[in-house]
Amino acid sequence: MHIDGHCHCGAIAYEAEIDPDKVGICHCTDCQHLTGSAYRVTVSVPKADFRITAGAPKTYTKTGDNGRTRYQMFCGACGSPIYTTGIGEDAGEVGIRWGNITQRRALAPNHQIWCSSAANWFGERDALPGRERD
After folding, report:
1. Residues 6+ apart with CB under 8 A from 29
2. How does pLDDT run across 39-65, given as a tens digit for each residue?
3. In a domain, 122, yes or no
4. Distance of CA 6 to the CA centre of its chain
5. Which pick of 30, 60, 71, 85 has the fewest CB atoms within 10 Å?
């Protein structure tokens, strides 16, 4: 599926070819902090299928609880999260942030990770197949 998206202010834009079955929820405490919410929704895509079409995101580097280095790419003007990627085996994949995808209503999550950190206010942990940790 072809998607496109942009940050809140429009300074950064992108397009990608994605598999709609690769949309998931992450409940880790890093995602909770970085979104200011209970979880983050992301669609994973091979880096070769993702392209920035306008602007240049800023990078925040974070080492997760699992020891993996993650690059959080965001708009320096409005602060919108755009995508994440990593190093080593994680460098070949991009995690596009669901909230700035134009076609987001067509992309429902079908799995979840870091369920051990889930707020579970409304039964989120039982809603989808998931793993306690990643």
Report:
1. 65, 114, 117
2. 999 999 999 999 999 999 999 999 877
3. no
4. 14
5. 60
Looking up residue 15, the CATH number of its domain turns out to be: 2.170.150.70
> Is residue 132 in some structural domain?
no
Tens-digit pLDDT profile for residues 58-104:
999 998 777 889 999 999 999 999 999 999 888 999 999 999 999 99
Q: 82 in a domain, yes or no?
A: yes
Residue 127 lies in a domain: no
Cβ contacts of 4 within 8 Å, gap of 6 or more: 13, 14, 15, 16, 53, 101, 102, 103
pTM, to two decimals: 0.88
Domain housing 80: 2-23+42-111
* Number of domain units in the chain: 1
Three-class secondary structure of residue 42 per DSSP: strand
Question: What is the spatial order of strands in the sheet that 58-63 belongs to?
Answer: 58-63, 69-74, 81-86, 93-97, 40-46, 23-26, 111-113
Q: How far is it, in rounded angstroms, from Cα 31 to Cα 46?
A: 21
Q: Per the structure block, which two tokens stand in for 7? A: 């940050």
